[in-house]
Amino acid sequence: MQKGGSFLTEQVTEEAIFTPEDFTEEHQMIAEMTSEFVQKRVLPHLAEMENHQFTITKQLMEEAGELGLLSSDIPEIYGGLGLDKISTAVISEMMSVAGGFSVTHGAHIGIGSLPIVLFGNKAQKEKYLPDLATGKKIASYALTEPTVGSDALSVKTTAVLNKEGTHYLLTGEKQWITNSGIADIFVVYAKVNQHHFTAFIVEKAFSGVSVGKEENKLGIKSSSTCAVRFDQVEVPVENVLGEVGRGHLIALNILNIGRYKLGLGAIGASKEALKKTIAYTDKRIQFSTPISRFPLTLEKYATMASYIYAAESTVYRTAGLLSEAMDGLADDVEMKKMAKIINEYVIECSLNKIFASEVLDMVVDECVQLHGGNGFMEDYDIVRMYRDSRINRIFEGTNEINRLLIPPTLAKKSLKGELPLFALAAMTEKEMISFLPEDPDEMPLSQEKMLLSNSKKISYLLFGMMLKKYKDKLEEQQEIMVNLANIINAIFAMDSCILRTEKSMEKSKKEEKQKMLYTEIYCQEAFQQVITEATDTLAYMLSGDELRLALSVLKKYTRYTPKALIASKREAATSLLKAGEYYV
Questions:
Q1: Does domain 142-241 have CATH number 2.60.40.10?
Q2: What are the Acyl-CoA dehydrogenase/oxidase C-terminal domain coordinates in residue numbering (predicted)?
Q3: CATH number of the domain at 401-579, please?
């Protein structure tokens, strides 16, 4: 099993990663079934759900349950399908076209149900999972509070054991809880005796549970979001999820899975926005020409598709890692072991969330622009997609919080000996003066591999310098931690693009021109970001001769002859226009 974060320190081979080209016939069938359900059953009712007619939502969730679209992660013995993680990933991506309904679906099958699937005991699974698998009951995840957001473990909701030792009395308020208006079961986090962070399974039917009014949100209006209050709610002791005082193992690792799944949804939504926009611009005539033919339109198509390709490559690579680690696990895996398995890929999950959500925001923003004035009119789907996209950079921990997780996590893994980052930093520092840049050869992707290799060396240098200079006070240097996280994000995406394209060429025994173009475009633009982030970081950490020396070294690592991206984008966009959608 690959170590989390090893993409930064090892040369992973293309055979070792999962890509969308590896989908089986069963995966393709699941994708088609999910897409058909969304197109024929969900989208015709989206306007009604946008107006909070959530009886329709509940009906559609039961229909999804009948098709098995709620139970892919639930073992067969509890009424589910127990599918592999790739199948679940495909469902999440295909469902993303359904606007706010996809949030309802995603919260139910993800952060709502998975705590019980992964951390519940046999009795809890037998009691709750069959109804969650069919959609007879809807799940919700209640963590956020009015005064508690990113600092999730400081919740104020309390749980006190009664004198008889039979029930916990739960008191507190949760805010902005997805599915809360239609949910039957809540996974609630509270502190036992004000100290021991613990997860509970709470039924809406329990006395003292009350749900507030529907929030008036900017987007995802077709999903239910309310406050939930708990007033001395008697929760049976057998509804403690996991162990008292170990709720953090559930909360943080379920959020890891949620971040990865959010990335899948962002990919699907990005593809749909691009598809709708190509269709619109192909019919919109200006100056006697469809605006889809204008060079600047073509440039936007190619840029969007290249970044979608990069995000898709990273997220499905992570799906492969989770599939390898989790498929076939016994149903009674010990809580600590399960948490460790999921936590192994905390860096990849955070990067998926950051990158895919920001790609989606870039895509919908450009798509609104290409719609012109109509992009500001509610009659067009792109308006809703623009509004709906914005929450993704806030959901499941803000993108800022996720970026700040990455450098400390890498440092911890290095201290434990799980990643050789300290050794690589020392080796790179030792060789930096004598380092001589080499020109790429004529082999496909040679330059992209060089940009990736040099980006890694830059990250090692910065990582070593930051730890040496700030030691245990690194958390006070948030700006440069974010810079390093951005470089690591670029490395993960560049590496995933290159490996996917190489694997595809090896599999098909042909050049795979479109994938090559996407990889060239993304890698060159990402490398420019690496240069900017590294320069900014060095200028903050150093001064005088030290800075001048460091910048001269950086210049050696960043020397390359740029490719003509204008020509590459025109070529890539021609195929996109012909296909009428995201095309690989």
A1: no
A2: 245-406
A3: 1.20.140.10
